[in-house]
Amino acid sequence: MPRGTKKTREDEVPLQPQQVTVYVPERLREGGSYSNIANINVSNNEVVINFIFADKQGTSLVSKVILSKKHAQEFVKVFQKVLQSKQLEK
Question: Which site among 16, 59, 62, 82 is 20 to 30 Å from 1 CA-CA?
Fold first, then answer.
C-alpha cells in the first residue's frame, strides 16, 4: 500500500477460522494446578509469571509462563474483559 494511503474496510480480508489440536499433558487433564501466589518479573522483551503454591507443608513452583510484552498486554485486556463480564452477571 503506498505511503499515506489509508486502509479501508473493503481492503480487509476476514480471517478464516482454523482448527488447532492442543496436546494436554496427563497432569493437566485432571484439573490443573492451584496457585495462591504469583510472582511477576518484567524485562525489556518479556513478562515472566511464576505461579506458586504455599501452605504449611512448604512452597513450590507450580507453573512458569513466559510471554512477550505484546502478548502480556493482550492477555491483560482479555482477562479484564472476562472478569468484568462475570461481575455483571452477579
Answer: 16
At which residue does the C-alpha cell 497432569 appear?
Answer: 27
What is the CB neighbour count within 10 angstroms for residue 24?
Answer: 8
Query: What is the pTM for the complete model shown?
Result: 0.68
- Pair 23, 39: CB distance under 8 Å: no
DSSP notation for 43-55:
-SSEEEEEEEEEE
* Among the listed residues 67, 62, 80, the one whose alpha carbon sits nearest the alpha carbon of residue 41: 67
Please report, for the chain, the start and end positions of each structural domain, with discontinuous segments joined by +: 20-89
Amino acid 75 reads: F
Amino acid, single-letter form, for residue 2: P
Are 87 and 79 contacting, i.e. CB atoms less than 8 angstroms apart? no
